[in-house]
Amino acid sequence: MIDLVIEARRHDIGNFEVGRVLPFHARRMVGPFTFLDHMGPAEFAPGFPKSADVRPHPHIGLSTLSYLFQGEITHRDSVGSLAVIKPGEVNWMTAGSGITHSERFETLRRQGGRMDGMQAWIALPKEYEETAPSFSHHEGSAELPSYESGGLKARLIAGEAFGAKASVPVFSPLFYVHWELEPGTTAALPAEYSERAAYVADGRVEVDGRELSALQMAVFAPGDTVVFKALERSTVMLMGGEPIGPRFIEWNFVSSSKDRIEQAKADWKAGRMKLPDLDHDEFIPLPEGPPPPAPPMS
To answer: Which long-range contacts (CB under 8 A, 24 or more apart) does 275-283 make?
Structure first.
């Protein structure tokens, strides 16, 4: 039932630690999910420097989905969006033909506090890779269906699952679900999609006779219902969908075409990609020197 277990690789990005789960050398994608990062958890004292912010940077060929357990992030982008994301809400940004954005911790800078959340990169199907860039914010049970029974609290973040559909405008069949499980609670993930995974953001669960701890992802074989039992209070993120074909990944760019990535790099370096309003004072430059080895197509 469990094909693979992936440990999040923790990296200090200069302001806090991020745990990268996808891509992994033995598993580049799960459905259309190309990147999965666990942001934090991190404690911020009031008045921390602006260098902690994620400065303006570009994307093509994907949608980003930001979801928080704790904290707040202020999002700005080159299509004019300005939105503050809070716990239990979704920021959905479709890069398509090209977008730039920044993520700033303005509320935390004023008040201090804890930041903990997830960011996923979801590759666009080939026919939508050059779609017009856009942004939407989603909150509340009308847009993100929720369910509670016994020791389980569930929220559908994007896509379709468990007979419900979220309002997030996805481009391919997928699901993304947030579970909160009390100790001893059991819950099942049906065999609805061909590619499925579960990331334990906090706590411990048992699946298929195997214990999964915080910062571990299990990738499941297709065709079987997966039953979870919480060994302690646990936060689990379920995700997956249908595969959309191989992708090249380099820096902040995802595409089915290596040439398209090279074009995006040249556009960014030459200043041809618009920056977010109010963010023109600083941006993330293209890394100098030869690029790292490209991840294998999967």
So the answer is: 275/56, 275/78, 275/100, 276/56, 276/76, 276/77, 276/78, 276/100, 276/101, 276/102, 277/76, 277/80, 277/82, 278/76, 279/55, 279/56, 279/76, 279/102, 282/55, 282/56, 283/55, 283/56, 283/57, 283/100
Residue 194 DSSP one-character state: S
Half-sphere exposure (Cβ direction) of 275: Cα atoms closer than 13 Å: 16
9-12 and 17-22 beta bridge pairing:
antiparallel
Which residue would you say has higher pLDDT here, 116 or 295?
Answer: 116
Residues 6+ apart with CB under 8 A from 225: 188, 189, 190, 191
Cα of 106 vs its chain's centroid, Å: 21
Q: What is the pLDDT of residues 34-88, one digit of tens each?
A: 999 999 888 888 988 887 788 899 999 999 999 999 999 999 999 999 999 999 9
CA distances from 243 to 12, 177, 191, 206, 246 (A): 31, 18, 15, 27, 9
Q: Which two tokens stand for residue 185?
A: 């609670």
Residue type, 107: T
**Interior angle at CA 153, CA 232 and CA 222, nearest 5:** 80
pLDDT, tens digit (0-9, with 9 covering 90-100), for 219-266? 999 999 999 999 999 999 999 999 999 999 998 999 999 999 999 999
The 3-class secondary structure across 159-177, one letter per residue, is: EEECCEECCCCCCCCEEEE
On whether the CB atoms of residues 91 and 85 are closer than 8 A, the answer is: yes
User: What is the model's pLDDT at position 88?
Assistant: 97
* Assigned token pair, 137: 């914010």
Going along the chain from its start, the domains and CATH numbers come out as 2-241 (2.60.120.10)
